[in-house]
């Protein structure tokens, strides 16, 4: 035996032990935290200019309230406690300046437009009760107010058109409990085990059947989690038109398919045994089948998204910068999320993109369901924007932004984390090609886009509102519907109006229609509308004249008037329709932005309906009109409660004016038909309930602008595709091997309710 062998073995063993120790130590060591790259520094001008579109600050809202309290000469009651006979401030929001003034400021070096607020006031304590809108300014120190009601609506707004305040709902609830229900104690106790706490009400709208009405059906549900799908069969029509609450009365009662004059008649019929009673099993407080509590324990964590080098977008005040994109954002108390001054590669492509309305029209054989046409803007899409849950409503590491509003109170309310912005890897290529013919190469670009999101919970419905910015210059507006299905009590021929989803629950059929305003400025303010499509033509094969070829060809048409540019909901629309600029690209084509709509809308309310004009925007999947300051919105918050004499009728916007080389607006309607089914229990999923539109460059550029993206990947068969300088994806083990810094989970959605 070699005397040196033991020493060699000892040294070898020591080396192995050292290597193993290093491996164990390194395995137990925490990966480095992800380090953010320096944030993009924006030019001061761009961020300060965007403030012309910024939502009112809480301080500004308070200044407006104080000014109104001191300068109107009337007592203003806090709307949260107001009676119908009081004067109160319903809302205060930003008054967006006129477009011409804003463009002169943004582009022409003009003066900044005065900052103003729009205040909506209810005047119930005067001989001629009405709703009045005031513009108040200049902010932050108001010195004037002017009544703009007649200018905007060509007349005063009658008091009966006012949206219901939360206080009025509470007053009706108290009336039902203390007056109406007091007239039927035996029926309520024996049929529902009523104890004044175990029922919930859902109102219908509009409130009546003719102009001037204020009569509302209140549908009774079990007061449990997810009460919307727990109807008990009782519905009460309350006449609350009088400004004197003591004059309110029950106009009609419905129970299990039968109508009664009032609760007294219902009680009498029950006591005499003349009612067919359908007892509903009492549900536990968690709702049982309607509970959203998971039925399975948590297991392996779902995938998470993070930014190895920090966010690649910047936000300052209301201004966002992302790669070639920049825009300003805001939140209207009535219509919700909106964008202004949207630019790509420094050039404005849209002045405004905003939600206008969310309409749902219901069917049922119960009175509440069959009379419901919800216009959610009147309730307040922005007002009911809800706090977002980190990691579910938006990616965990998204940027969360607080919003503020002043509605039905004298003080602004803060909605924490109610808007989120994030860049999302969509998990598929934006474009790619693998070449195995002639040359061998791969080229591709990850589809990473910026998302701006808010979620509004209006009653039973939750709407996920997205605006998405892609690297190829496209913008997507998208809405996903979720929340609880509204329901009726199943009786009689109920299955004509939906599906049975539980023992006594009819999921009622409804249509959802969403309207957007898209003010495109393509290559400037003046645009024309052009339609491209296809047609087959027959031709003789030039090389074989006895043979015929059917070939598609391009069709082109300039749409000269508003009437030509109004496309009915179910009509055939040109598949390529675009706003054309007065400039051309390198190849001689008019630069344009194409409108592409994704919709599965149900049928529109028949135009013979007495209320159809109030929702006449929903006649059209697309209507393009001349932009006018006096036509800022397609509807009005006052249309909900008086659709028979609409304050704004969109159909009047379309009057055959020429739209060639003019400042144009596209009004886009998208939607879907919802027939609730058993899988809508406990509530509706977003899958399959997503609609919207795309704005896509069409000959706007000389080539796809995303070719200049830093995210592109390209390598050939002759290159070392494992080298970082050739293929950045190969560097991920180095550049992305870090742990994201997850902030602690917080949620403020249950505070100050």
Automatic annotation (TrEMBL):
GO terms for molecular function: copper ion binding; primary methylamine oxidase activity; quinone binding. Residues 162-257 form the Copper amine oxidase N3-terminal domain. Topaquinone (TPQ) is generated by copper-dependent autoxidation of a specific tyrosyl residue. Signal peptide: none annotated. GO terms for biological process: amine metabolic process. It comes from Circaetus pectoralis. This is Amine oxidase. Pfam families: Cu_amine_oxid, Cu_amine_oxidN2, Cu_amine_oxidN3.
